[in-house]
Amino acid sequence: MTNNNNNNTIQTNTEDDAEIPGIRFVDYKDESQLEYVMSLVGRDLSEPYSIFTYRYFLHRFPELCILAVADDSPEPIACVVGKIDIEGVDETEQEQAENAEKTGYIGMLAVQEAYRRKGIGQALVHRILQRMKNMECRSVTLETEVTNTTAQKLYQDRFGFIREELLVRYYLNWNDAYRLRLWF
Amino acid sequence: MMEQLISVTAIMNQDDDLRHRPSDKEKASFFVASSLPSSHHLFEDLIPSAKSSLIDVTHFFQQCAQQLTPEHAFLCHEEIHFNLYDAMAASQLGHEKMDCCQVPPYRVTTTEEPYVFPRPPPTGLSSAFTTLLWDEWTETQVLGFAVQILVRLQALCTGASVGESTFTCLYAHAPVLQEMEERLFPLELSLSEQWNVTNDASQVDTDDKTLSYHGTPEQFMIYALSLSLSEITKVFRSIVHNADIYEEEDYVAQTYQIPLYTSRHQDFVTVFRTAMNVFHELSEVQAALGLILSFLMGFYSSMAQLAKLSTNGILDQVQGIQTIVVKAVDALDLLLEQPSLVSVSAPSTAFDPYVYRPRVGNTPVRQVRTVEPRQAIEVLREITHEMDWSVCQLLLKANSLGRLRRMLQHVSRKDVNILSRSLIVLNLYFDDLILGQFSMAQWIWEDLLEWTTVLEDSNLHFLQTEHCHSFLQRLAKPIYDTLKLQTLNRNRHRAFMDVIMFPEWVSLQMEAQALDGYLCSEGHLQSSTPIFTQYTLVATLRLMVQYITVGFELDLYCSHDDIGFAYWYLDFLLSGLLTHLSAMKQNKDMANMEQRVKESKTLTLNGSNKGNQRNKKKNQRQKNNAPEVAPSYRPTPQDLETDFELSVLALKRNLCRGSLRFLAALQQAGILKERKHIFTSKERVFQERFRAFAGIRQPPPLVYKQYAQGSDFSTVTTEELQQSTSEWFLSCRRAVEHLQSTALPSVDVDYAPIRETELNSLLKVCIGNNVYLMKLRQAIQDPKWVSSVRVEFETKTHDQFCTIKLS
Questions:
Q1: List of chain A residues whose C-beta atoms are within 8 Å of the C-beta of residue B87
Q2: Which letter, b or e, does each residue of B378-402 get, where b requires 16 or more Cβ atoms within 10 Å of its Cβ?
Q3: Tell me: the pLDDT tens digits for B228-237?
Q4: For the N-acetyltransferase domain, which residue ranges apply (chain A) (predicted)?
Q5: What integer pLDDT is reported at residue B80 of this predicted model?
Q6: Which of B489, B562, B677 sits opposite A159 (nearest CB)?
Q7: What is the pLDDT of residue B53?
């Protein structure tokens, strides 16, 4: 782990949802946007997701899918997709479990290559975390490949996620993953 | 979607009868066959040959769909299973990522890559899909085949499923083995052999017995090598299943409904022996083949024997197995020197990584990974060697709980293969004896006595009370769990401790307190020496220390705050452990000394009284003047090991303190800045990091406020803090050097609480940290350097104690 003293943003986060010139953040609307999400995510993630996986996230938690639209692009250029689990409760009983602990999960985050290093990924994560917090989640988890230092820098350094567990040979390419968790 | 489905099913059937009007049932079976990998009988009938071409049958499906009526609304009948997963698979046929069979999309017309069609397992040497080489094997090809067998074996032992390893060898499939066996051992020959054995007393089973076969030496070698892979797979799976400590990263239990073969040769070693006598010349190729067979036989025999040890003569059994293991390792060492390894290759039709794809189902599968032969052999060598030093040595040398604990900790730190870890678990406790040799209750009692006050004989009777006896029995399972913990994957330790062990030891602490209270009230114990309470507290502290140190090994502490939390808490726990163990040992040493003085007085008195009565007064004077000095005491090996352990704990505690001060010095210098996050806080992170300790009563869980106070060096000047940090690392360095020169040579290396390599690593950490601290002291006056310096927490030198690098 390296701590670069030059980068002040490691030490602090902005309080507000920062606006990025030329970029609008919109909520997922309906099935008509599904192919954009699949295209963004499928391009970069090594693990394949079926259409049913996307639908599982988007139909159950449409409010936890946020798209970033650029002024100079007709299609979304980035997205984040998440869900909420109620820990210790079977999925079929989740709706009835009023006092159970809610945990957010960030399943997918993708930014088109041409739009990277502009803070769009950070802005999307900030927004989804805020929503999960508003929805009374106690914590948020995600998995990231051990070699994905960019993602780790984003989640760990900028948002304070900690490494909770090492998942050996988690991915289909035999690579390991860290489970990260943020405690609100 | 429909077009993709149609294009794939078109591949399956080139029948011109497509043009005729099929019945409803025929239409249904046509659809289902294309997407149901599990219906292998249908699938095999429709498997295309390698020269199949694509036929557009869109119109056919359109016709079928137009014929649907409300009465017959479905293309697939209910009798034919077509579930949701099949529907998902059908919609993803041809998808570049989701299609596990990697059939390219219909619309791709040009590609340089050949299509890789899914294939069923072979049904014999000649099946519908391919014909396996049998009559044309050459010696060199056999060697290439043998090397690939080792590659598959290595894949199996390092976490690949049988579908990704064993069954990628087409000759290891049951129907092929059966056919090879039928050809090599025709029924009439087998019967004839049996007749001769039954009627000829000289042909009874001996160690030199070999088989007669009907074929070429190369054919027998192929059969023997394939059968060895199958048999070793069976034994390996049996061992890992029975031990039941495997996780998904170690081992995949599924066989994908592909059966393992049961050979007619029950004594499999005879097959090996026959194979080793097949070739009579000593060419390079044959020498290499002989080494491979020698390894396979040794590997198989040692695994199988270690899995079924008996308590009777166990040490002799293990010594015998150790000899076999060493020979197997030697065979691989010699094999690695063979030049013929470089150029051999097996026929391409002998191995196929896609053979099990239809059985896997409809989800994307892992990439089948095989390594280069040399690497596979090196890994197999390591796995085999582990059976020697981690399994055999454990069984031969562990003769106390403390020694077993230390040996297992070393095994755990070395990340030993699932095979050896499973063999350790199978032999850890069987036939009501620990390691098949010792009484668990007796070992626990001796472990307790190793650290507590020696009791006088007159007080020992209280140990026979029901309460003490019950509590010792109660301790057996939790202590067994602390040993078994070391056989789990390191990345699983924390979860196991959190869920199972901490709650268990919390209960034990309460029970131990109650027992000590009772013994104290009965006058058997002094209140200042609650032996059972101390014992359970020490066990709990050890677990808590391991919980944090494993976190370092897994690189879970990723920020300087996190690292600071961990070292601070670890310092607290190690200090507690050191305090209690030192106090217990001190009490024990004092009691020992008193006992020796008492015995010495008694001896002197007896010696004096042997004189006659006339010397009575003289004797009285001698008795009164007898010096109260204990006779010189020669420490036992266990005493030396105990002292070594205490020294290592002190060393690690001091390293924690040095690291904490280094972090504080960097913060004071403005190099490490305080981090603030919008959604969380340091206090929250601290609380959740050590949530596993929240339920433990002793030691009481610490809170962030205590950390903030304990790590606050704001009242210390920069110079003093840096000086203090330097002194801590210097004292650690001296401690390491003392341990290397004095403590380590005085104990058996297998019983040492720390090995030489780890001591060397810690020495480098001490030196490295001091070097960077010196750099900080020299450069801190330069604001430019302070603003541009990068801090790196490097754990490659030692995985628990980092070197804090400044660049």
A1: none
A2: bbbbebbbbbbbbbbbbbeebebbb
A3: 999 999 999 9
A4: 23-184
A5: 58
A6: B677
A7: 57
In B, which residues are within 8 Å of A42 by CB distance? Answer: 97
B 473-492 near A (Cβ less than 8 A) = 489, 491
B165 chain-A contacts, CB cut-off 8 A: none
What local confidence, expressed as pLDDT, does residue B62 receive? Answer: 82
Under CATH, which number does the domain A2-138 receive? Answer: 3.40.630.30
Enclosing H/E stretch for A34: helix A34-44
- DSSP letter for B438, please: B
Looking at residue B395, its pLDDT comes to 97
For A126, phi then psi, to 5°, come to -60, -45
Token look-up 């750099």 returns B775
Compare all CA atoms of chain B with the CA of A134 and give the residue at the minimum distance: B679
Mean pLDDT over residues B566-594, rounded? 89
Q: How far apart are CA A38 and CA B417, in angstroms?
A: 39
Query: Could you write out the DSSP letters of every residue in B297-333?
Result: HHHHHHHHHHTT--STTHHHHHHHHHHHHHHHHHHHH
* Cβ contacts of A26 within 8 Å, gap of 6 or more: A66, A67, A68, A69, A76
Confidence of residue B35 (pLDDT cuts 50, 70, 90): very low
Determine the residue of chain A that is closest to B796 in CA distance: A1
* A132: nearest CA partner in chain B: B679
DSSP state of A17: -
Q: Do B790 and A50 touch (CB under 8 A)?
A: no
Residue in B367, B495, B557 nearest the CB of A172:
B367
The structural domains of chain A, with segments of one domain joined by +, span 2-138
Q: With H, G, I as helix, E, B as strand and everything else as coil, classify residue B725.
A: helix
CA-closest candidate to residue B674, choices A134, A11, A165, A167: A11
**Between chains, do A3 and B366 touch, taking CB under 8 Å as contact?**
no
**Is-contact B296 B228, C-beta < 8 A?**
yes
The string of DSSP letters for A82-142 reads EEEEETTS-GGGGGG-SSSPEEEEEEEEEE-GGG-SSSHHHHHHHHHHHHHHHTT-SEEEE
A173 vs B367, B557, B786: nearest CB: B367
Model's pTM, two decimal places?
A: 0.85
CA–CA distance, B705 with B349 (Å, rounded to integer): 68
CA distance A129 to chain B (A): 8
Torsion of CA B42, B44, B50, B56, to 10 degrees: 0
Tens-place pLDDT, residues B169-226: 999 999 999 999 999 988 765 555 555 544 444 444 445 677 888 899 999 999 999 9
Q: CB of A104 within 8 A of CB of A137?
A: yes
B783 touches chain A (CB under 8 A): no
Cβ–Cβ of A174/B88 closer than 8 Å?
no
Contact status of B365 with chain A (Cβ, < 8 Å): yes
Q: Of the candidates B493, B310, B308, B378, which has an alpha carbon nearest to the alpha carbon of residue B147?
A: B378
Greatest Cα pair distance, chain A, in angstroms, is: 49
Task: Give contacts of B 535-564 with A, CB under 8 A.
Answer: 554-560, 562
Using an 8 Å Cβ cutoff, are B796 and B785 in contact? Answer: no
